[in-house]
Structure formats: structure tokens, C-alpha cells
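Incident log, structure service

09:12 report received: a user says their structure output differs between two submissions of the same chain.
09:20 pulled the input from the user's history:
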Amino acid sequence: MFDAKKEKDRIVEFIRDYYQKNNLKGAVLGISGGKDSGVVAGLMCEALGSENVVGVTLPCHSKLADRQDALLVSQKFGFEMLNIDLTETYEAFKKQVGLLGDFSEEETHNSDINIKPRLRMASVYYLAALLSATKGGTYIVPGTSNACELYVGYFTKGGDSVYDIAPIYGLTVEEVIKVGEVLGVPEKVLYRAPDDGLSGMTDEQKMGVKYADIAKVINGEQLDEKEKEKIENLHRKAAHKFNVPVYKKEGK
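09:34 re-ran on a clean worker, output below:
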């Protein structure tokens, strides 16, 4: 039986231990208005103190509701919230790409979706370096991916796959929600249908599978064979996201 209170306490201790061993000060993380970033924000604030946590919203043709929900999280846990609008940055990049050729929307669709989390992560790391230089200690970037997303590779290489510590790496979506309930993450955020805030679709619509079913595969539980194969196929296709081939000279 999953004990959310005990798991929350273990994660907080895990964060504190890592920070103490490595003489770190604070954290900068993107706050999307969804449960994963809300739970990670709550965990970081409990572990480090809210004064050492900085959140940032990074809209890019995004819904206003996302920022409003993100603000609920910062208000709940008391950490500073910044906003960097990446819309013009994205448009400037697209303009430069347009100089390379006349590409259709269909041809650029996947690239357009994935450049946004990459711009976001570059921005979060910029802020982490800036705060490290101005706040008298090192700030790092926590990841907000959960076990279900990671299993099927539902993340962008060079985007939300980049982080320095992963507090909810081992938690399924249901477990993230339970930990969020213990932390007191605002209900509107915690129970919101998860989406990337970029494509206009929910996560489950994009993946074509349900998070609950992914959790069953991870936990070795019974599942319809057709659904299981869809999930395992996503897992196999995502293998390149985890394993980077490295050439080594003979004898080394």
C-alpha cells in the first residue's frame, strides 16, 4: 500500500541530503499550472524553504489559465514567481527557419511543438545560473517528469528531459496526486487533466494511452493485451531518448 505521507517525507529528505552533500542553495523550476510542477514545487519548498525556491512561467502562445493556475501554486507555497514570455523569441526563431525554405505547417508541426520546451529549459537554466551568481549560492533545476511519462518517453530531448534532480522520477501519476494531496497542492491544479500547454491536446490524447494503464504495466498488473502492447511499443520507440551511443577507442 502506497503511503503518501511517508513517501513525501522520504523525497524531502532525499532533496535535503543531496543539497547538503553538494553545498547547494536553491532551485529554479518552470511552473506549468499542472500537478507535476505543483507537487515538485511543494516538495522543494518543504525541503529548502520557500525563500530558496524560484518558479517561472514561460508562456509561448499559451493559455492565460496556465499562468493563473501556476500563480495558485506560488501563493500556496510562498515562493517567488517570475514570468518570461517566450512568444517573441519563438516567432523570431521561426522567422529564421523560414529563410531556409518554404515549409508547410504539417512539415514543421513536430519541430514547432518540441522547440518550445527546449526554449523553456534554456531559459530556466539561464535563470539558475543568474541566481547562482547573484544570491550567494548554487541554484539547480529540478525535473518534473513522473514515472509514467518517463516509461513511454513522453518528454522532449533537450527540453523537459534536462534537469539536475528528479524528485518524482519514481512516482506514477496516481502517486504524484496522492503526494500532492498531502502537500496541499491546490485542487484546481492537482486534478486538472494533464496537458503540455503547447499542442492544445491532453497528454493522454497525444499518447493514445491512459496514465492508469501505463502504471499497470510499470507495476506488473493485469491489463488488456492490446493496450499493453501499445504502451510497450511506445516504450520501445523511446529507447533512443535514454541511451546515447558512445564510441570508445579499442583498449580504452
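09:41 both user submissions now match this output. Likely a transient worker issue. Closing.
09:42 reviewer note: Residues 4-194 form a domain with the Rossmann fold fold (CATH 3.40.50.620). The chain has a mean pLDDT of 94.
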